[in-house]
Write a structure and sequence with these properties.
- This protein has about 425 residues and is α/β, with parallel strands linked by helices.
- The protein has two domains: about 170 residues, Aspartate Aminotransferase, domain 1; about 240 residues, Type I PLP-dependent aspartate aminotransferase-like (Major domain) (Aspartate Aminotransferase, domain 2).
- Helices cover about 35% and strands about 15% of the residues.
- The strands form four sheets. A seven-stranded mixed beta sheet has the order 4-12-11-10-9-5-8, sandwiched between helices.
- The radius of gyration is 21 Å and the shape is globular.
- The chain binds pyridoxal-5'-phosphate.
- The site of pyridoxal-5'-phosphate has 15 residues, from helix 4.
Length: about 425
Amino acid sequence: MTDTLSRALFERAIRLIPGGVNSPVRAFRAVGGDPVFIQRAEGAKLYGADGTAYLDYIGSWGPMILGHAHPDVIRAVQDAATRGLSYGAPTELEVKFAEKIQSLYPSMEMMRCVSSGTEATMSAIRVARGFTKRDLVVKFEGCYHGHADHLLVKAGSGLATFGTPDSGGVPEGIAKTTLTLPFNDEAALRDLFAKVGTQIAAVIVEPVVGNMGCVPPDPGFLEALIALCRDHGAVSIFDEVMTGCRLAAGGAQERFGLRPDMTTLGKIVGGGMPLAAYGGRADIMSVIAPLGSVYQAGTLSGNPIAVSAGLATLQHLGPALYMRLEALGARLEEGLARAVKDSGATACVQRVGSMITLFFCEGPVRSWSDADKADRKRFAAFHGELLRRGIYWPPAQFEAAFLSGAHTEEDVDRTVMAAAEALKSAS
Ligand SMILES: *Cc1c(COP(=O)(O)O)cnc(C)c1O
């Protein structure tokens, strides 16, 4: 199904780059087939190596909320580039960026810029540990927080099971400092705090999970998480690398009216450039060097080109955009749900705002053990049929698809039609 130019490039790539890709999910291993190599992108469209147009529902895995090559963002990058690419010294741009982020995320009283979501979560946890002088970190099964050692940990089974590494190369000693629980299991979290609450430095969560497919929090779950952390002197961390500026300009915390102790941002805030940020309560953030003893640094942190792209993107995040994304999302959700029903397939559609997943299992999916029931083979067939019809859907069952401001009603309707056909021929 992949064009011949992409195939030729892939053959060259796999000789030098493990799996032919610089990030694993791009390899299409979960769905079979070869990846499409991209030569350019504009609006809601990607163009493959041979010029084939695809309607894009990945958006570079989240950042491209305005669509690709938005003229204002491109202009900001071009302007910034003429003034030099990196100084290794502070700039007004970084101050403006921090002020803008603070206005959208009042919980981020102080913040630091870094270059990737992984760096943001890794640093936030180091800070939380330094602040609390405790070691244990709690995460939820199916949540992804980047590839730092202590976050590549799968669930043990159930309550208070010490983590085992989910990846080669992660020392067990490090994995043991991470405890995992089922997402949406408030009782399990309460029990864990009752047992080891005085040793817990932080609880990190995707407030709406995107990395096991789109899974919303049960009402009250996030509120309980924040309260439990507060009562036990632990730090609550909302990993909003995906949801930040996606579910609202102020992320999931704005959408749900919550105030975590710390927040991590990435993806959209960089407008497609390598930029991320972490921040939170001023007393917590004050442990960072040079103010305090927790070391965190970066040669390219707050890079002027990346910050310029981020600022230009943030300027467009108003109510009009989110109303439009909500309407497009609802239209896509209804269309896909109808197509599922008509096809008789066992599947469910879950959506929050412009994040959406079609799971090949019965709903609702509330946690990883629910998501894990999804039929990956049927998803792979569905994905292949969509790609054949020019729809570039995430190449894995457990990823959220994203809409952008560049998508149109016609795009959504075309996608629903393609999905209806794909569900029929893939069943
Ligand atoms: C993408 C993602 C990360 C990692 O960000 P990178 O920039 O890929 O390092 C962390 N947390 C969440 C929730 C993400 O979606």
